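Thread: Newbie trying to understand structure tokens

Hi all, I'm a second-year student working on a class project, and my supervisor (Dr. K.) asked me to get a predicted structure for one chain before our next meeting. I've only ever worked with sequences, so writing a 3D structure as a token string is new to me. If someone could post the tokens and maybe explain what I'm looking at, I'd be very grateful. Here's the chain:
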Amino acid sequence: MRVVGYERVSTARQGASGLGIEAQRLAIDGSAMQRNATLIARFTEVESGRNPDRPELGKALHLAKVTGATLVIAELDRLSRNAAFLLTLRDSGVNFAAVDLPEANDLTVGIMALVAQQELEAISKRTKEALAVARSRGVKLGNPNGAAALRRAGKGCAPLRAAIARNADRHAGDLVPVIDDIRAGGATSLRAIAGELNARGMLTRRGGLWHVSTVTNLLDRLDARERRCAGPESA
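---
Reply by user tm_fold:
Sure, no problem. This is what the structure looks like when written as tokens:
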């Protein structure tokens, strides 16, 4: 029997230190020994549990499928909040085993996926309700049509650039409480923050999905905004 190991930790710091990975690795190795199986490969993901972008998982599933190996996961329970992961696992057609939940099967994973999706939708709803409360209290949110209006009016590049910058600053400011909540939850890497923003239904200023580059731009803008607010004393 052959097995493929898949491990995941939530932060880059844990990935660099080995914290969390070592325990999962021992569990996977122990499971392989009990099954008298050969571990043919090991894939490690340093990623937020809610991030749907899981390249190492894709590689692990592909190798397991083409070799007929069983995918072994140390802690399926840790990943139970990630609907994308669970649905990918369920629909992959690959045999899998979870060390912490040996009774898990396609039905179990499907139920977990439904619960995870409901939880993510609830988080998105709460976040949107919080933004609605902010609007009701007079907080001004960004106007994505401001730049277009200036362009139509033909008022030149300088006012256009200024309007775009103001709208971007407003949009970034609206996301401050969301970013703070995400970081407080342990998602600190750029990719992890992007995954959380997408999971909560937050859109970029242009109405798209978040990526590492757009999160970088957002955080840079927030840093610049904070320096401007701090004034000369921060220099």
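A couple of things are worth pointing out once you decode it. The chain has two domains: 2-113, 122-234. Confidence is low (pLDDT under 50) at residues 12-19. Feel free to ask follow-ups in this thread.
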